[in-house]
Amino acid sequence: MKKNSMEPKLFASITSFVIIVVAVVALLIISNRGMASAMGDKNAMLNEETFALQRKQMVERQIANRGVADERVLEAMETVPRHLFIPEDFRSYSYFDQPVPIGYGQTISQPYIVAFMTEILQLNKDDIVLEIGTGSGYQAAVLAKLAKQVYTIEIVAGLGNRAKKQLQTMGFDNIEVKIGDGYNGWPEHAPFDAIIVTAAAEKIPQPLIDQMSPSGRMIIPVGGVFEIQELILITKDASSKVVKESIFPVRFVPLTRQ
Fold this sequence. Notes:
There is one protein chain. By secondary structure, the protein is α/β, with parallel strands linked by helices. The protein has a single domain (48-250), classed as Rossmann fold (3-Layer(aba) Sandwich). 36% of the residues lie in helices and 22% in strands. A hairpin with a 2-residue loop joins strand 1 (100-103) and strand 2.
């Protein structure tokens, strides 16, 4: 029987085609993995080294490039692991230039906003700080790197208790978390050198102004849910004269009352 000379050629062609297909698929897989890691795909394999690199890039590109210059603030933002304060389902978005959901209808603020609001308080190592709206606990952790003591109030018990546990696990011993309505502040620990409010109030709560120390500073977003909100800086001089300054428009979740 005569041997068909086309069979070896056909086999060689098929083999070459299979090799090419496998190579292309392998390249696509490698490319997609790299893209997933770079873009924060929630299925990407992210380790602490990767998060540290993302955190460094966050500080350089999102924060320092926008004008935040206080070296202590930049160091705190690069040191505190933001991803540990974000639920697992959204953790890959931790260092994106955006707010991220943390449950209970709340969000963790955009990294730049956290850094800006921290810097404008001009904190030193002996300051006592009040935070209204603990949320994930991330802002309190950043503040605790810069101040002597942070008192923080969260009205949503589930969030507050989760933040308290996370902060304790991370070894923060200069943060005290309280579950309750932050509108009236925390008079037992007043006066405060700095106050930061991380939810928008329809008007500036007078109890918070009263609890500012002489030469104290407060940063607070003000405005209704369907209004243009403004980030307001409030300062009090040695004679207790209060000055209010509008910084820029913002969008925050509303300050919840009991």
